[in-house]
TrEMBL record:
SUPFAM superfamilies membership: ACT-like, Formate/glycerate dehydrogenase catalytic domain-like, HAD-like, NAD(P)-binding Rossmann-fold domains
Pfam families given in the database record: 2-Hacid_dh (PF00389), 2-Hacid_dh_C (PF02826), ACT_AHAS_ss (PF22629), HAD (PF12710)
The enzyme's E.C. designation: 1.1.1.399, 1.1.1.95
Catalyzed reaction equations: (2R)-3-phosphoglycerate + NAD(+) = 3-phosphooxypyruvate + NADH + H(+); (R)-2-hydroxyglutarate + NAD(+) = 2-oxoglutarate + NADH + H(+)
PANTHER family registered for this protein in UniProt: D-ISOMER SPECIFIC 2-HYDROXYACID DEHYDROGENASE CATALYTIC DOMAIN-CONTAINING PROTEIN-RELATED (PTHR43761:SF1), D-ISOMER SPECIFIC 2-HYDROXYACID DEHYDROGENASE FAMILY PROTEIN (AFU_ORTHOLOGUE AFUA_1G13630) (PTHR43761)
Name of the protein in question: D-3-phosphoglycerate dehydrogenase
NCBIfam families reported in the protein's UniProt record: PRK11790.1
Keywords: NAD, Oxidoreductase
Gene Ontology terms for molecular function: phosphoglycerate dehydrogenase activity
Length: 637
């Protein structure tokens, strides 16, 4: 059975504010009651400050409660509004673990120094027994205004939780879960066997220090205690490392799912990456961080499951090594295509009108009005090297602007519009007025444009490289510019690029006239980065949550159905004959009911996904993991 139960009776004493729900109920009640009041911010601030002091044990609880209620001009209607608000603020990990709550209903207690008036409806809606909710109660006047609270209630007193638990005399072990000092006091008093500091919503150092265990989600608590839960392995224990300042949307996407996320602004070199990849399961990078074999084979990278290239190019990643290790890689193949195309068009116009020279002169006070060496792009021949997503989109737009488009691609591509296919690179180079590079960054594309290729070009050609730096031999381009073979150039990518904005850009192209230099920003628009920040995490999350690999650049591609009332076992293995039979042999041996099974292979690896009934023997997992040629195994609940 995967669904384990505690071997002996355990009572779960759970705090409400900032634990069961994400917020402090009384603070929120104050904000609701004071909405529109000119002193609202001040009074709510005072109430919150007192709440915090109480949580940290810096003032006695009874004093803190009295002070806060005295500041609270609330009515019964405000309490009703608060209840509605709190229904939407149940902590994520509690919301997804209703099954645990119903399974352990008899032994789950909500013990709070808050108020039953709003706690009971919220807790009961989640399956908690009303009789098991212990909290204070407000007193109201005839008009429904809150005028105080029941001061005889143990929970309104100092050490109220301790007194209540003494009175309850629970049988069996007691595990206290909460974010406040008063929750720890249950452990200190000996009434609780263990105290779990719950930090999903708020982390208080003084409380964390006292904890037997610190849990970032209810799943983590359930995992530690071998209890039934919604996640096979708690996401709060899974590390996501995002590099190169990926869009905040990406950070939010992973945080919202409960992962541990770290974001670094710059790229990392090999040594730094080896250091930082320790314990990381999901890595996000852009074009500047190289994920090499050396990094991948280091023991620090042993937890790596998935990589997101938050860009188009994936030449910086050793895809084959990732595949060999069962690490799925995803990218954003179209999210910045348009941005690159727009930049290329803009640069062609700027160069052919020699705008930068004129603009620089103007800044020095020189008025040089003349049409000499200034041309339209209309009617000129544009030669595209690489006719993929960017090349084709540029082809269509350039043609709409009146250019004659030629292209050369390593594979046979259908021409769009009136574009003309060139059979050889030489043919394309010899007829084009503008040459724009849009090949991918595979190693064999190193220096595909060098002295020989520049020599084949027309005189006064305009040359653009927005693809990858190593595609063009820079000294050869410098010579071609100096000799006048190339009239002007726009270069966005370089064989070596600074790791961060703090590093100086060093390149022989610096200071040459009619050369537009940009810091690899072809894809750096707000639109493109926001698109990428949504697209890549969505692929990574699908892989993590459901096993789907659709869109992966190195893995067998599978679009899997949602997981319904089953456990999903994901097995990655070397692609040798007989593995599927062996896997199914294990299922047959343990008489497991298979609900669905999917298999896809590449030349090197196989990916088998099996959905099975929730009840089966734990030994199956061990046997599957132990099968010869297994690369990776994981399980989804
Ligand atoms: N400057 C930037 O910020 C920026 C932004 C996005 C993409 N890029 C770069 O642009 C590249 C192209 O992007 P894409 O989306 O069009 O990729 P793509 O894979 O759709 O197209 C690349 C095309 O180049 C062709 N090709 C590869 N090697 C070739 C060669 N030697 N000769 C002729 N054709 C060759 C391929 O067959 C393919 O059709 C990316 O791989 C990336 O490196 C740069
Ligand atoms: O491959 C890409 O998409 C571009 O080179 C952009 O890379 P970047 O995200 O590092 O700017």
């Amino acid at each position: 059975m995967l669904t384990k139960t505690a071997e002996h009776q355990v009572n779960f004493v759970i705090d409400f504010d900032s634990t069961f729900t994400q917020v402090e109920g009384l603070d929120e009640l104050a904000a609701i009651a004071l909405a529109g009041n000119k002193d609202s911010e001040k009074i709510v601030g005072e109430i919150k400050a007192i709440t915090d002091k109480g949580m940290l044990g810096e003032i006695g609880f009874a004093d803190s409660l009295k002070a806060r209620v005295a500041l609270l001009p609330a009515h019964r209607d405000h309490v009703n509004t608060l209840i509605e608000f709190l229904m939407g603020k149940i902590s994520d990990s509690f919301a997804r673990n209703r099954e645990f709550i119903s399974m352990y209903r008899e032994n789950i207690y909500i013990v709070s120094s808050g108020f039953k008036d709003f706690i009971v409806p919220v807790a009961v809606s989640m399956g908690v027994k009303e009789e098991n909710v212990f909290a204070n109660t407000f007193t109201y006047d005839a008009e429904g205004n809150i005028i105080g609270y029941d001061e005889s209630n143990l929970l309104s007193q100092d050490k109220g939780k301790v007194k209540l638990l003494q009175a309850l005399q629970l049988e069996g072990d007691v595990y206290a879960i909460g974010d406040g000092y008063t929750d720890y006091e249950l452990r200190e008093s000996g009434l609780a066997n263990k105290f779990f500091a719950f930090i999903e919503n708020v982390e208080r150092q003084k409380v964390v220090e006292k904890a037997d265990e610190v849990v970032a989600s209810l799943d983590e608590f359930l995992y530690i205690n071998g209890l039934s839960r919604s996640q096979s392995y708690p996401k709060s224990k899974i590390k996501v490392l995002l590099l190169e300042n990926v869009h905040p949307k990406a950070v939010a996407a992973f945080k919202n799912e409960g992962f541990q996320v770290e974001l670094l602004k710059g790229a990392l070199d090999e040594e730094e990456l080896i250091e930082r990849i320790k314990g990381v399961s999901i890595l996000g990078l852009r074009s500047k961080t190289n994920l090499t074999k050396r990094v991948l084979e280091h023991p620090n990278a042993s937890r790596l499951m998935a990589v997101g290239a938050f860009c188009i190019g994936t030449n910086q990643i050793d895809l084959a090594e990732c595949e060999r290790r069962g690490i799925a890689v995803f990218n954003a193949p179209y999210s910045n295509t348009r941005s690159v195309v727009e930049l290329a068009i803009g640069e062609m116009i700027m160069l052919t009108r020699d705008i930068f020279t004129k603009s620089n002169k103007m800044h020095q006070g020189v008025w040089d009005k003349s049409a000499t060496n200034s041309y339209e792009i209309r009617g000129k021949k544009l030669g595209l090297v690489g006719y993929g997503s960017i090349g084709t989109q540029l082809s269509v737009i350039a043609e709409a602007m009146g250019m004659e488009v030629y292209f050369y691609d390593a594979v046979d591509k259908l021409a769009l519009g009136n574009a003309k296919k060139c059979k050889t690179l030489e043919e394309l180079l010899s007829i084009s007025d503008f040459i724009s590079m849009h090949v991918d960054g595979r190693k064999t594309n190193s220096n595909i444009i060098g002295e020989k290729e520049f020599a084949m070009m027309k005189d006064n050609v305009i040359f653009i490289n927005l693809s990858r730096g190593h595609v063009v031999d820079i000294p050869a381009l410098v010579n071609a510019l100096k000799s006048g073979k190339v009239w002007g150039a726009a270069v966005d990518v370089f064989p070596y690029e600074p790791k961060t904005n703090d590093e100086e850009f060093m390149n022989e192209l610096r200071s040459l006239p009619r050369v537009i230099l940009t810091p690899h920003i072809g894809g750096s628009t707000e639109e493109a980065q926001a698109n990428i920040g949504e697209f890549v995490p969505s692929k990574l999350l699908q892989f993590m949550n459901n096993g789907s690999t659709y869109g992966s650049v190195n893995f067998p591609e599978l679009q899997l159905p949602a997981l319904e009332d089953a456990h999903r076992l994901l097995h990655v293995h070397q692609n040798v004959p007989g593995i599927l039979a062996k896997i199914n042999g294990i299922f047959a041996k343990y008489n497991v009911n298979i609900k669905g099974q999917y298999l896809k292979t590449t030349n090197n690896i196989g990916y088998v996904i099996t959905d099975v009934a929730k009840e089966y023997a734990d030994e199956i997992v061990e046997e599957l993991k132990g099968l010869d040629n297994t690369i990776k195994f994981r399980m989804l609940y």
